[in-house]
Write a structure and sequence with these properties.
82 residues; 5 helices; 73% helix; 0% strand; elongated
Length: 82
């Protein structure tokens, strides 16, 4: 980790970069993107959930996942805090 006292110029650049990337607006936009594109429940999700909620959760969070459901699992875990 970069120590603030060792290289103040680099620390200032790093801090500025992090503040730019993780500004309130950017974090909000990333959250909206995750919610709108990866956490939406499609009709087939709702049907599967109604039929067997536990099986649906196992399918969504299972070890073998496609690229799309991998993003969904990651998004769910991010918002669930796990």
């Amino acid at each position: 980790m970069l120590e603030l006292g060792s290289r103040p110029e680099q620390a200032a650049v790093a801090k500025s970069t992090l503040e730019t990337i993780f500004s309130s607006d950017n974090v909000l936009e990333m959250a909206v993107l995750l919610l709108r594109h990866f956490l939406i429940l499609r009709e087939c999700d709702l049907e599967s959930w109604e039929e067997d909620p536990e099986e649906w959760v196992l399918e969504v969070t299972g070890d073998v996942v496609s690229a799309e459901s991998g993003f969904r699992v990651s998004s769910l875990l991010l918002f669930r805090g796990g």
